Amino acid sequence: MDNRESREGRTKRIGNKKALWSRFCATILSSVGVIFVLGFFAFANAAESPSVAIKNIKDAQYVGTETCATCHEKENKEFELSTHARIKVKGVKEEAEGCEMCHGAGSIHVDNGGGRNKPGQETIMNPRKNPEVCFTCHIEKKMEFRLH
Fold this sequence. Notes:
Elements: H1 2-48, H2 65-71, H3 73-80, E1 88-90, E2 95-97, H4 100-103, H5 107-111, H6 139-147
Antiparallel strand pairs: 1-2
């Protein structure tokens, strides 16, 4: 009889441990799920209303993508197929879209007949030479760069 009772006692203890472990796992999984859902909604809301400061060249005005395309036809075709082509960021006075979201307002560049920036005379921003403008939207990339 003792042997049978001790087996039943062990079985109950093992059953209790399994039940506790199951509850613990369910709690952890539920918590992770809640955090994931909340994070998703927070990211979705942030993506709908970005609050970024578009960098600009002093005294430059927006000229529009069509103006850029007159000289940069190949780049414009590539841009139209990119993810960035669907983004619009509203500024304080004007709306930056297309090329000027990343390169800044282009009027001075256009007035100077295009060409490359000269030292001390920036007419257009070049994200390939200074990716800081990219980090105004791609904050996660800036953090990656800082980690490496």
